[in-house]
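User: Show me a protein chain along with its predicted structure.
Assistant: Here is one chain, sequence first, then structure tokens.
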Amino acid sequence: MATAALRTYKMTVQSRGQVTLPKHLREEMELKPGDSVIAEPDGLGGYRLVPLKPMTIDEMYARWGDPTPVSFEEVERQIQEARDAYAEEMALEYAE
């Protein structure tokens, strides 16, 4: 993560519960489209956003085995499933 000075950012919750992270915040956190973040309790009644480090293919195989994909679409599906499972796992870990 970049070592920029800490800054406060205002975001608005949209009707579907979504917020857009300001460009400077995404850059400071080195977030790219498709990246995941965890909302981690800060112990003061608030939360802080923590980027999830992308898993390497070796980490995915070590965690979920080595299913042999049959097509590009299958590879994409498996990658998304692995990301979703990892994000859920991390969310549960931070919830404890």
